[in-house]
Write a structure and sequence with these properties.
19% of the residues lie in helices and 20% in strands. The protein is built from eleven helices and twelve strands. Strands 3, 4, 7, 8, 9, 11 and 12 form a seven-stranded mixed beta sheet that branches. Strands 2-1-10-5-6 form a five-stranded mixed beta sheet. The longest helix is centred in the N-terminal third of the chain and has 8 residues. The chain starts with 19 loop residues before the first helix and ends in a 14-residue tail after the last helix.
Length: 323
C-alpha cells in the first residue's frame, strides 16, 4: 500500500518556483523589470558579489541540492535585486551598502563555540561547511521595515550545529555575535550603537527545523552584503533577528540582550515574531511591500510559518512575542 505524504503548508509544486535559469539570467531580469533606464544595468555589470564564487574556498560545494520540503508560494526575488538592497549597519544605515561590504575579509574565518558546552572550541568556516554538508531551502524573508523578499538560501540546520557543540542541559539560550573591525566596517565607528551586533534565541527555537545557518545563496557562496561567510535565517521572525557574519556562538543560561533590543527596547524586543496585528510604534505591520514587484500584500502571522513554530510560544502569553 502506498504511503500518503502530507505536504507542509509552505510547500508548493516545483513548477511554481522561479526556475534557476530565469533568476540567474541577468539580462532577462533587467529586461523583465524594465529598470535599465534607472541605471540597474550598469550596476549589474559590476556584478556585486557575482565573482565571489571563484575566490571562495567552498565554491565547489555549490549549487547545493534543493530540499523540496522548504518551498515558497511566491516567485524568488531576482538575485541582482537582492544583491543591491541590504541592511548591514556595520557598513552604513542605507540600503546600498554592497560596495562597502566588499571590504569584509572572510577568508580565513574562525568561529568560536563556547559557553555551556561540553568542550569549547574554535572551528574554521570552511571546515564547518564541509563537515556539515549543505542543502538549499527557499525561504520568505520579512523585514521589520515592512518589506519582504524570497531567497534560495544554502546552508545547514542550526540543530546540526547544536549537535556538534554538545550544549549542557543548563543551556537555555543561544547567543550569536558578529565580527568587530571598525577599520573595515566603518559603521562600527558609530559609538552610539552597541557593537558588535548580538542576537539570541531560545534552545527550543534553535532546535526548530526552520532555523537555518546560511552559507550561500542563489547557488553560490554567500555574498558579503548578505552576511558572508555565515549568517542566520529565522524566517518566522523579523529580519533583524537573522544576524550576519557570525564569529561567535555562545550557549548560556541568561537571555541575551540583542542589538536592536538594546538600541530601542520600546520598538524592538527579544522575540520579534512576525504578526500583522501588532504594529511597530511608527508604522503598521498589516501589509508588506514585495521587494522586486512593489506589490503590497497582507502580512501573515509568523510570516506564514505558524504551523511549524506557534507551539514554541504557547506558554509565553505574558511575553511581548511580536515586537
Amino acid at each position: 500500500m502506498a504511503s500518503i505524504i502530507k505536504q507542509k503548508d509552505w510547500a508548493i509544486s516545483e513548477s511554481l518556483a522561479t526556475p534557476e535559469d530565469v533568476f540567474l539570467n541577468r539580462r532577462q531580469i533587467v529586461k523583465g523589470l524594465g529598470m535599465a533606464g534607472l541605471g540597474l544595468a550598469a550596476a549589474v555589470a559590476l556584478r556585486p558579489g557575482g565573482a565571489l564564487a571563484a575566490n571562495d574556498p567552498t565554491a565547489d560545494l555549490y549549487p547545493a541540492e534543493r530540499d523540496e520540503a522548504y518551498m515558497i508560494d511566491r516567485e524568488l526575488t531576482p538575485e541582482d535585486i537582492n544583491l543591491m538592497y541590504n541592511n548591514f549597519y556595520e557598513f552604513g544605515s542605507h540600503k546600498q551598502i554592497w560596495k562597502a561590504a566588499q571590504a569584509l575579509k572572510t577568508n580565513p574565518w574562525d568561529m568560536e563555540i563556547d559557553g555551556l558546552v561540553e568542550k569549547p572550541f574554535t572551528i574554521g568556516f570552511e571546515d564547518l561547511a564541509r563537515r556539515m554538508g549543505l542543502e538549499e531551502r527557499l525561504y520568505r524573508h520579512r523585514c521589520v521595515e515592512a518589506w519582504s523578499m524570497t531567497v534560495p538560501w544554502s546552508g545547514f540546520a542550526l540543530s546540526d550545529l547544536l549537535a556538534l557543540a554538545k550544549p549542557l542541559s543548563s543551556a537555555k539560550f543561544v547567543r550569536f555575535e558578529t565580527f568587530l573591525d571598525p577599520q573595515v566596517a566603518t559603521g562600527q565607528k558609530q559609538r552610539w550603537y552597541p557593537w558588535p551586533y548580538v542576537e539570541g534565541v531560545t534552545m527550543e527555537e534553535a532546535g526548530n527545523d526552520l532555523a537555518f545557518l546560511v552559507t550561500g545563496a542563489y547557488g553560490k557562496p554567500l555574498a558579503k552584503q548578505f552576511g558572508a561567510p555565515i549568517r542566520l535565517a529565522l524566517p518566522w521572525k523579523y529580519g533583524f533577528k537573522s544576524i550576519k557574519s557570525i564569529k561567535r556562538i555562545t550557549f548560556t543560561d541568561t537571555r541575551p540582550v540583542s542589538f536592536w533590543e538594546d538600541v530601542g527596547p520600546n520598538e524592538y524586543g527579544f522575540w520579534a515574531n512576525v504578526n500583522p496585528d501588532v504594529p511597530h510604534r511608527r508604522w503598521s505591520q498589516a501589509q508588506e511591500r514585495v521587494l522586486h514587484t512593489g506589490e503590497s500584500v497582507p502580512t501573515q502571522i509568523y510570516n506564514g510559518y505558524g504551523d511549524q513554530v506557534a507551539h514554541l510560544y504557547k506558554d509565553l502569553s505574558a511575553e511581548k512575542l511580536f515586537m
